[in-house]
Amino acid sequence: MKEKQILIHDKVEVVESVGDVVWTMDVNYRLTAFNPSFEQKLGNEHLGNAEKGMDLRPIYKKGVFFSSCEQGCEQALNRYATRANHTIQENGITRVHEFYFQPYMDSSGNVIGCCIWQKDITDEVNNIHRIRESEIKYKEAQKVANVGHWNWDMLKNEITWSDQLYRIFGQIPGEFEATFESLMEILHPEDRVAFQEDVNHSISNNVLHDIVHRIIVNNGEIRYVHHKGSVFYDEDGKPYRMSGTTQDVTKDVAYNHKIIEQNHELQNFVRIISHNLRGPISNLLMLSKIYDWGHNEMNDDIMQKIEQTTEALDQTIKDLNLSLSLKSGDKDRFRDVDLKEVIKEVDTLLSEEVTRSKATIRTDFSAAETVFGAKSYVSNILYNLVQNAIKYAKEGERALIEITTHDTLEHIVLKVSDNGIGIELTPERQRKIFDMYGRLSGNTEGKGLGLYLVKNQIEAMNGKIEVESEPGEGTTFNVYFPK
Fold first, then answer.
1. CA-based nearest residue to 272, from 317, 327, 329, 325
2. Which residues contact 133 (CB under 8 A, 6 or more apart)?
3. CA proximity to 469, closest of 436, 429, 412
């Protein structure tokens, strides 16, 4: 600072190019040196022309810009270097100025004057406010989502937690020392090995740390948390840091468990009802077989209606059982399914329909020749989609069915497109297409069970199905098989 004082006092031209306002004065408040910005400020406030030797006290009293200088200069002349922020309105804009008041002495150590250096810090102050606002919003977002952020310095074995993370783990900031070992103590004993293995796997293979596990907090309360984190490596490829997020998913896990329990109860209920109905249904069907037909027309008509109703009820029970068997499919038996082999089976099964309708089926499996799942499911999916394409062809026009595959980051997409009558897909209709006994059109025969089974079989293989259609433009089904 002494070097600056000398430069300002003896060589004012050194700070002529600086946008800051700089000037010096003696112990009698007489101006001894100044830069062009100081002269400009005097002119802007109509305080006269800057001249060496002029008394600065009237300027400090009258000038808006200089109003904080009298007190600051007084402290500087009493040997106290000080700093002050001054907020003023300039052209309708709030500006923040920072003033430095620095005493300077002669060779004997006596104060002989004061150097004042002003700097506009409005942008810096605004940036600080924005950062603080962002921090507040970030903390609010963490609290709402019940998610916290953490950073693990592997070299120092220090873990930094956000405030919300302390809440999730039931700890108090300042009282709990976050280290990897202390974290392991909070983890449920049965989940510690899996957590450690996932961390090691993430570090060794540079993959995402992603695991849901239990923690024990407070007085034995068990919570479920979802960890996600990434590892950072130095130039030599050695891991030195890991950071990520932790979310409290206790409510989600409890909700999912409740859904699973309800599904099991529903499945058991359906099985019990199905079992209890099988006997009466079988008896009714047997009675219809031994009934002596042809003696009474009215009785024959009644028996025929009973027989038809019983057969429909019997088929409904079979459909429900089939649906349950799909949902509980053995995923350990899933394998890579060759689509070319599947399409050969479908061609054989639908050969009569294809010949009769003169439909054309084109395939292109160059992007992906296999999908992962159950072959019988994949065969039934293609069978139903191709059969629908033939069924809903335009009158007087041959059906053209194109079956292709596409490879995406997470899925193999099987696309089945046709040039049929299409349908206007309202949200309600799009949902009902895949409902049990839903149909693409109300003008065709059939129960509409095909697409329901297709959807169930796809979901049993952890996939999904989407439909696109326009009236008169045909229909496209996209089946997503996870890799």
1. 317
2. none
3. 429
- Per DSSP, helices labelled H in 19-121 are 36-44, 57-62, 69-77
Token pair for residue 238?
Answer: 């050695």
pLDDT in tens, 244-274: 889 888 888 887 777 667 666 666 666 666 6
Rounded to 5 degrees, φ, ψ at 334 are -70, 145
CA of residue 18 relative to chain centroid, distance: 48
Select from 145, 136, 359 the least CA-distant residue to 246: 145
Of 51-60, 121-130, 226-235, 260-269, where does mean pLDDT reach its minimum? 260-269
Provide the pLDDT confidence category of residue 5 given band limits of 50, 70 and 90.
very low
Sign of CA dihedral 192, 193, 194, 198: positive
Whole-model pTM?
0.41
Contact of 102 with 111, CB cutoff 8 Å? no
Q: What angle do CA 301, 302, 307 make, to 5 degrees?
A: 95
For residue 397, give every residue at least 6 positions away whose Cβ sits within 8 Å of its Cβ, in sequence order, or none. 419
Contact 477, 381 (CB under 8 A): no
Encoded amino acid at 254, one letter:
A
Residues 6+ apart with CB under 8 A from 10: 33
d(CA 235, CA 383): 55
Strands 400-407 and 360-364 come out as parallel
Query: How many CB atoms within 10 Å of residue 350?
Result: 18
Residues in CB range of 478: below 8 A, 6 or more apart: 413, 414, 415, 465, 466, 467, 468
Rounded Cα distance, 189 and 180, in Å? 15
Token pair 């249904």 in the structure block, residue: 281
Give the rounded distance of the alpha carbon of 475 from its chain centre: 31
447: helix, coil or strand? coil
In 3D space, the residue among 69, 120, 67 whose CA is nearest the CA of residue 94 turns out to be: 120
pLDDT digits (tens, 9 = 90+) for 198-248: 999 999 999 999 988 899 987 889 999 998 889 999 999 999 999 988 988
Q: Which residues make Cβ contacts (< 8 Å) with residue 199, sequence separation at least 6?
A: 209, 242
Would you give the DSSP letter of residue 190?
G
CA distance 212 to 414: 32
Write down the H helix ranges in 222-296: 250-290
Tokens 């996932």, residue located: 198
Beta strands in 147-293 (DSSP E): 147-153, 158-161, 209-217, 221-233, 239-248
Residues 6+ apart with CB under 8 A from 24: 5, 8, 9, 31, 32, 33, 34, 104, 113, 114, 115, 116
Taking residue 196's Cβ as centre, other Cβ atoms within 10 Å add up to 13
